[in-house]
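REVIEWER CHECKLIST
Item 1: Sequence provided? yes
Item 2: Single chain? yes
Item 3: Sequence as submitted:
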Amino acid sequence: MGLIAQLEKETRVLRARDVAKLFQVTPQHVYKMAAGGRLPSFRLAGAIRFDPHELANWLRKAQPVAFRPEEGNQWRRSA
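Item 4: Structure as written out by the authors:
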C-alpha cells in the first residue's frame, strides 16, 4: 500500500512521531518542517498535530506529473 493510501485510510489525528515513522525521518525533522510551514500542521492544546488527509493532499501536490505516452508527446516541436 502506498503512502498516500495509508494516510487516506487513517481516521485519527497524527503526532509528529507518527508522521516521522511514515515518512522515515526523525521527529525533529517533522517538527522543523511544520515550524517552517513546509508541512501542513495545526496546534491542538499546544501540541503540533497533523491531519492525515491534508498530508495526503500535500504529497499529491508535491509529486511530479508523470509523462503519459498514451496522451501523445506534447513536447515535440512542430517542423
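Item 5: Key structural point noted by reviewer: The helical segments are 3-9, 16-23, 27-35, 52-62.
Item 6: Recommendation: ____
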